[in-house]
Amino acid sequence: MRAPIVLFVYNRPAHTRQTIAALQANHGARDSDLFIYSDAAKNADSAAGVAQVREYIRSVGGFKSVSIHEQAENRGLARSVIHGVTQITAKYTRAIVLEDDLITAPNFLDYMNAGLDRYASDDRVMQIAGYMFAVDLKIDEDALFLPFISSWGWATWDRAWQHFDRREDCFEQILNDAATRRRFDLNGRYKYSRILRAQQRKTVDSWAVFWYVSVFLRNGLALFPKKTLVLNLGFDGTGVNCAVSKFDQEELDPTFRVNVLPPAVELSAHAGRVIDSIPATRLSFTSVLNKLVGRRAISR
Questions:
Q1: Taking Cα atoms as reference points, which of 174, 155, 273, 171 lies closest to residue 222?
Q2: How many CB atoms lie within 10 A of CB 218?
Q3: What domain range includes position 82?
Q4: How many CA atoms lie within 13 A of 51 on its CB side?
């Protein structure tokens, strides 16, 4: 049985159309149930876009079923994601999660479902990630385990999501120990700990940083493809916290399939190289972090 797809949309009709068109072109889309969560407008400026998105999603087909959840009040991205993922995983035990600025390769759903099936009973695997940085990996397998999460097209199970924890006192275990903080920051490559501090100050509201903390503190792993199966369109200037940028992303390869999964559930020997090879961005550090941890929520 195919895992349900959960899609969160807001006020960008053009992006939403591209995201859904790519999903419709995926192998297995017609055997998958699609649940669309549409957040209400935060203000008058967003109302027209929300209305256009809602008009469009009511016409969507190409899936086993399409269920639409239109919120009456604005929740923001963080609350929307937490509510939707909790609701769907509780009912179906697993979910594939996307936002409205992500383009998926044709084999994305096949990979997600294969990973969800293969590691359903292994508690250390807490996420299947669809995005991979533009890193050239010479490995025999088509995927590898890494010690961090991705919010750009991912999947999980109820048994993992039940550990999602929004208690900020968990942050102190990371912030108060230099070695732990450095590991959390991917050996200093990305200062995720800055988001923890910003969360404490209530200047951001990121669901993804809480999810990363929840996975990190349990020594959880996420499965990543060796080539990306997701392209993020949110750096085009339409995202509320990101200016136009040339953030390095690998183009989607429509022929790439994840056929060979890692033989053992363990941190990849290539994890350090992946972290060290994450391409430098050519826009502000803060803007990239906003995207990586789903900070768009704060302005919704």
A1: 155
A2: 14
A3: 5-299
A4: 6
Q: Report the domain count for the chain.
A: 1
- Residues 6 or more apart whose CB falls under 8 angstroms from that of 255 comprise none
Tokens 């080539």 identify what position? Answer: 227
Q: pTM value? A: 0.91
d(CA 264, CA 57): 41
pLDDT mean over 230-242: 65
Looking at residue 79, which CATH number applies to its domain? 3.90.550.10
Question: Helix, strand, coil: what percent of the chain each, to 5?
Answer: 40, 15, 45
Nearest-angstrom CA–CA distance, 184 and 38: 32
Which residues neighbour 36 within 8 Å (Cβ) at sequence distance 6 or greater?
A: 7, 9, 57, 60, 66, 67, 68, 69
Condensed to tens digits (0 to 9), the pLDDT of residues 118-130 reads: 999 999 999 999 9
